[in-house]
User: Which sequence fits this backbone?
């Protein structure tokens, strides 16, 4: 899947409320898994690795290229494979997001690093990224693939304060069970527990 040149017919469409709600639900659940010593060790080790600057094109541009929102591993794999000369690499690693590291895929070509994944929620056009060459993807019996690092299956994120994510998820569930909409519940949790969480020391994002 090579990048299209020139104008592309068709513009990006605004995500529906249902799409955003589904993403919010998935995000809350995916960040609330039980903590483990392996998670803490991986976080400490990865933070010592070198960082690079990644550029993210606009959502309109990425959607016009045929990239799928929130499907970074598939986007980057297909894009890199479309260059048979090997000039473009699919690289796995980590985005620094507050006090967490988020598993992510980007591509590198000629020393330039790019994110190919549209984000429905506004995201910066440049961000620090930690390439992690120890990540390997193992195939399951059903044909699906899962990321591993040093023999241990990886979650979608490594958290500095896992207990806070669990508290936020539990409060989020309570609000939804009371009849509040998903998006309103997210706003309330962000304004209360999220604000409290954001005051804690995060992971420094400056480049090394």
Assistant:
């Amino acid at each position: 899947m090579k990048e299209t040149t020139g104008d592309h017919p068709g513009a990006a469409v605004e995500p529906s409320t249902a799409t955003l709600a589904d993403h919010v639900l998935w995000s809350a659940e995916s960040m609330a898994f039980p903590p483990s010593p392996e998670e803490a060790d991986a976080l400490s080790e990865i933070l010592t690795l070198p960082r690079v600057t990644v550029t993210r094109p606009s959502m309109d541009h990425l959607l016009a290229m045929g990239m799928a929102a929130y499907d970074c591993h598939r986007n980057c794999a297909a894009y890199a494979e479309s260059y048979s000369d090997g000039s473009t690499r699919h690289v796995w690693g980590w985005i620094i997001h507050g006090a967490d590291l988020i598993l992510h895929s980007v591509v590198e070509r000629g020393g330039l690093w790019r994110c190919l994944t549209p984000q429905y929620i506004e995201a910066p056009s440049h961000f620090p990224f930690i390439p992690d060459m120890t990540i390997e993807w193992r195939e399951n019996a059903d044909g699906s693939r899962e990321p591993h690092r040093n023999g241990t299956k990886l979650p979608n994120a490594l958290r500095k304060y896992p207990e806070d994510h669990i508290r936020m998820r539990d409060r989020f569930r309570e609000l939804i069970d009371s009849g509040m909409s998903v998006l309103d519940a997210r706003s309330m949790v962000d304004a209360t527990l999220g604000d409290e969480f954001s005051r804690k020391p995060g992971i420094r994002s400056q480049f090394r």
In short: The chain has a mean pLDDT of 86. The longest strand covers residues 88-97. The helical segments are 17-30, 37-46, 59-64, 72-81, 162-177, 182-198. The first helix runs from residue 17 to 30.
